[in-house]
Design brief:
419 residues, alpha+beta, Alpha-Beta Plaits, 13 strands, 40% helix, binds adenosine-5'-diphosphate, binds magnesium ion
């Protein structure tokens, strides 16, 4: 079990795709060439592993969430954006029912499963995600063949950028493509969520998977977790407003399987039951003060976070539709304060990254993802990306923390077939 905020990922986690800021045309062309080489390498690795060419390659991105944290399992709202970093699923259909799984970020071994398929909790380690996707589709009534899989990802793991959803969604899309299932985006997202919930054992909501599958380039995804099928695209183009969005990976590993997430989720469900509501999303902001008086001291702050956070999502959507991207800054910072003080899922590193980014001129900053480490996003004036990243790095070094890693956070496309 990982104690919140104490465990760090190893130096070997370092990946070569880091970069900062907005991307001019020349940089985009270089990025496209790099992606093409990456695709070739992944196909070559599959062929070397399995001695045959793949049927296809599918990609699914990681995500940052602009605002709306810990709201999805309360039937609430979120506003995620897909990252340019993706997980590639290189796959080939088999006819003998067997499943073979390998990841460039795994332990070097190929995990093999027989035609009986995976039982919940039976596959250890990372392979539980792809095996769980196969299991989830089978559970939904689809008759699947076996498959060979090679995974290669540029989404940092355990950084709050949702590498787990990128993995599960890439595999869901691959199995969909291999079998011609033609599932909708929300169906793919639900499949990937079920894989995490039932086969890996993480009781996550649906936000990460919806973001990975349904986000579009240049947009944030306005998600209502009660009716995920009715998601909306909201224009999000910080560069057009002379701004940039940074993701600062604190490199402090969180572990959402350690019970903290489940305890928070259970607390929210208990509060909703005490208030006689289907979910906390059903508590109108105007009734919050009365509700808080009726709740025990340990639950009241959770409810205050969820209700005010849903309000912040609505506010952010209104601002983006009005083209007031800079005004998003204070909304992000207020969201961080709520996660820190009410929901209590921040940690010294994320708090320091937020305060150092703000002191260096960021218009707003907040932790993104489940918490207990992970990444911080910062909305900064264009041209200030390097200065803000440097200020956070200096603050970390002074505090004795490992320097954070800065990633581009342009609004990239959602999951897709590449080959
Ligand atoms: P996050 O989703 O924020 O990155 P999680 O703890 O939810 O953090 O998921 C991280 C886990 O997902 C890893 O420990 C690993 O089991 C699995 N995972 C994600 N990407 C990969 C990958 N490319 N190869 C193998 N496992 C992966
Ligand atoms: Mg995850």
């Amino acid at each position: 079990m990982t104690a919140p905020g104490t465990s760090r990922r190893e130096a070997g986690d370092e990946r070569p795709d880091g970069g900062t800021g907005a991307r001019p045309a020349a940089a985009r062309a270089t990025g496209a060439a790099e992606e093409a080489r990456r695709l070739d390498r992944a196909v070559a690795a599959f062929t070397a592993l399995y001695g045959t060419v793949p049927d296809g390659v599918w990609a699914a991105p990681g995500r940052i969430n602009l605002i709306g944290e810990h709201t999805d399992y309360n039937d609430g709202f979120a506003l995620p954006v897909a990252l340019p970093q993706t997980t590639l699923a290189v796959a080939r259909r088999r006819t003998d029912g067997r499943i073979r799984l390998h990841s460039a970020q795994g332990d070097g071994r190929v995990t093999e499963l027989g035609p009986e398929g995976p039982a919940p909790g039976a596959v250890p380690g990372w392979a539980a995600y792809p095996a769980g996707v196969h299991g989830a589709l089978t559970r939904a009534g689809h008759r699947l063949e076996g498959f060979d899989l090679h995974i290669d990802s540029t989404v940092p793991t355990g950084a709050g950028l949702s590498s787990s959803a990128a993995l599960a969604c890439a595999v869901a899309l691959a199995l969909d493509g291999l079998h011609g299932l033609d599932l909708t985006g929300p169906e793919l997202a639900r499949t990937a969520q079920l894989a995490e919930n039932a086969f890996v054992g993480v009781p996550c909501g649906i936000m990460d998977q919806m973001a990975s599958v349904c986000c579009e380039e240049g947009s944030a995804l306005h998600l209502d977790s009660r009716t995920p099928d009715r998601y909306r695209q909201v224009p999000f183009d910080p560069a057009a407003a002379d701004l940039a969005l940074l993701a600062l990976d604190t490199r402090v590993a969180h572990d959402l399987g350690d019970g903290a997430y489940a305890a928070l989720r259970a607390g929210c469900e208990r509060a909703a039951a005490l208030l006689d509501l289907p979910a906390l999303r059903d508590l109108p902001a105007a009734e919050l003060p009365t509700a808080l008086d009726r709740l025990p001291a340990d639950l009241a702050p959770l409810v205050r976070h969820v209700v005010t956070e849903n309000g912040r999502v609505a506010e952010a959507v209104t601002l983006l539709h009005a083209g007031r991207t800079a005004a998003l800054g204070p909304v992000l910072t207020a969201g961080h304060a709520s996660l820190r003080d009410d929901y209590r899922v921040s940690c010294p590193e994320t708090d320091l990254a937020v305060s150092a980014a703000l002191a260096a001129g960021a218009l707003g900053a907040r932790m993104t993802g489940g918490g207990f480490g992970g990444s911080v996003i910062a909305l900064v004036p264009a041209g200030r990306e390097a200065a803000v990243a440097e200020a956070v790095t200096t603050a970390f070094t002074t505090a004795g923390y490992r320097p954070p890693r800065t990633l581009r956070a342009a609004a990239a496309p959602g999951a897709r077939r590449l080959l």
